[in-house]
UniProtKB/TrEMBL annotation:
UniProt lineage: Bacteria, Pseudomonadati, Campylobacterota, Epsilonproteobacteria, Campylobacterales
Keywords, alphabetical: Membrane, Transmembrane, Transmembrane helix
Protein name, per record: Putative membrane protein
InterPro entries registered for this protein in UniProt: DUF485, Inner_membrane_assoc
Domain of life: Bacteria
GO annotation, cellular component aspect: plasma membrane
Length: 104
């Protein structure tokens, strides 16, 4: 691609909208994941007895399902991002491409 095409993409208002929406959404999801993860780590560091509570009469402690929950939240947030990326973000990308094709 030529520099001219890059300049047209960068000056397209839909591109600015795409970058802004995608960045804002990614930061929100990243903050949610960081809060969940660091809360988990802080409980382990400062109150390890909380996760050491046994569930039922077996050897499983509260920390196991909470840890699995942290992993599941990561998968769910990834799925949420992928769904939005394949929908709204791909639609904006297609509109930007169409604008470039019609301008040539």
């Amino acid at each position: 691609m030529s520099q001219n095409i890059y300049d047209k993409v960068k000056t397209n208002p839909k591109y600015a909208e795409l970058v802004q929406k995608r960045s804002r959404f990614a930061w929100k999801l990243a903050i949610v994941m960081l809060v969940v993860y660091y809360a988990f780590i802080l409980v382990i560091a400062f109150s390890p007895n909380l996760f050491a509570i046994r569930i039922g009469e077996g050897v499983t402690t509260l920390g196991i399902p909470v840890g699995i929950g942290v992993i599941l939240i990561a998968f769910i947030l990834t799925g949420i991002y992928t769904q939005r990326a394949n929908g709204e973000f791909d639609d904006l990308t297609a509109q930007i491409k169409e604008d470039l094709r019609s301008a040539q």
